[in-house]
Design goal:
Elements (H helix, E strand, L loop, with lengths): L27 E5 L4 H13 L6 E4 L29 H8 L11 E4 L4 E4 L2 H10 L25 H16 L1 H6 L4 H23 L14 H20 L7 H4 L1 H12 L8 H4 L3 H4 L8 H7 L5 H7 L3 H6 L2 H9 L6 H6 L1
Helix pairs in contact: 1-3, 1-7, 4-6, 4-7
The chain binds glutathione.
Length: 343
């Protein structure tokens, strides 16, 4: 699940009419599944920019099978691939390269005109969606006209790049490293790296000039990249990936408030994009290859010390659908950006 696993489809869109991949309405489709934090990055940008009628979104079933992600029509997803009637995402990859053996990852940005993959790299897709389609959008939604310089402001680029990098390694990907650890030593090392990084974000939010968002009063792409992992943390990663040392809602008050602000915001800054692209019923499904029983069966890794130290809600988690519990107790609609700014 690391960023480096599938960097082989990385063309770029452009707003230059003569470019190979000109950013035009109705030409591109974004394939995703709602459980995937990397895919949600792109989906947030698409909704935040108001590109719903410009780029099609095609959702796959959230459960991964031995044949990869597939179309089933369950949980509001597509029954079949709408263009080729395919049943699995890998058939789309094979359309371009019949010899490909994998990986067959999402998100995937598909060009319907040339019938090729433009990109399967979420960081690139995010940037293309917020940079290249502005000529199709009203003035107030264009990056140059957004307050504070948009999602990737020039004056913050070095800080954004640096923060993206450690968040990617120590949070976005690290949760999967924790879930996939096969011995105690690597589990302990990974969990230490993960929670040190979360502590670092909590301290970052307390620094002058930071907060309520990572770089101040307006969001940047780093907020989006971090959000998709944090919104999954208590409801999914704590259990399904065994990241069971601390909970965001109890142990990281600033990060928790930051997450709630983004989730509930429906101002012109986000147009409700964070909530509209978060599907808890998809997010909290078990990840088969990392599920607890199998984890304990195949390894002797001890997670119980974390459960006994921090098992405050573990019992309840196992008895109620965790996403319902989470929605009820952890995301009360109590905060708005403007209230926090006025404090
Ligand atoms: N580099 C990719 C990683 C995306 C990724 O890991 N996607 C996962 C779902 S969360 C996937 O498609 N896994 C399928 C597989 O590995 O076969 C990105 O950030 O876009």
């Amino acid at each position: 699940m690391a960023d480096a696993d599938c960097h082989d489809c990385r063309s770029l869109l452009s707003n230059d009419k003569s470019a190979d991949f000109y950013a035009e309405a109705g030409r591109y489709a974004l394939y995703l599944q709602y459980g995937c934090p990397f895919a949600q990055r792109a989906n947030i940008v698409l909704h935040l920019k108001g590109l719903e009628n410009v780029i099609s979104v095609i959702a796959l079933d959230p459960t991964k099978t031995a044949e990869g992600f597939r179309f089933t029509g369950l949980l509001g997803t597509a029954k079949k691939d709408p263009y080729y009637n395919y049943s699995h995402i890998r058939q789309l990859y094979w359309r371009v390269d019949p010899d490909r053996t994998g990986p067959f990852t999402i998100p995937l940005l598909w060009d319907r005109k040339k019938e090729v993959i433009v990109s399967n790299e979420s960081g690139d897709i995010m940037r293309m969606l917020y940079e290249c389609f502005d000529h199709l959008l009203p003035e107030d939604r264009r990056e140059t006209n957004r307050p504070s310089g948009g999602l990737y402001p020039k004056h913050l680029r070095p800080q954004i790049e640096a923060m993206n990098k450690w968040i990617q390694t120590d949070i976005n990907s690290c949760v999967y490293d924790v879930g996939g650890a096969i011995d105690q030593e690597s589990y302990d090392a990974r969990i230490k790296a993960l929670f040190s990084a979360l502590d670092r974000v909590e301290s970052h939010l307390a620094e002058p000039g930071h907060g309520p968002f990572l770089f101040g009063e307006m969001i940047t792409e780093t907020d989006i990249r971090l959000f998709t992992s944090i919104i999954r943390f208590d409801v999914a990663y704590y259990n399904t990936l065994h990241c069971s040392s601390k909970l965001i809602r109890y142990d990281y008050p600033k990060l928790h408030l930051w997450m709630q602000l983004l989730y509930w915001d429906d101002s012109p800054m986000t147009r409700g994009a964070f909530k509209r692209t978060t599907f808890f019923d998809h997010v909290s499904l078990p990840i088969p290859e990392m599920h607890a029983e199998r984890f304990l069966e195949v390894t002797n890794v001890c997670r119980s010390k974390y459960y006994s130290l921090h098992g405050r809600l573990t019992g309840l988690y196992s008895q109620v659908p965790s996403h319902l519990f989470y929605l009820y107790h952890s995301l009360p609609r109590i905060v708005r950006v403007r209230d926090v700014l006025c404090r």
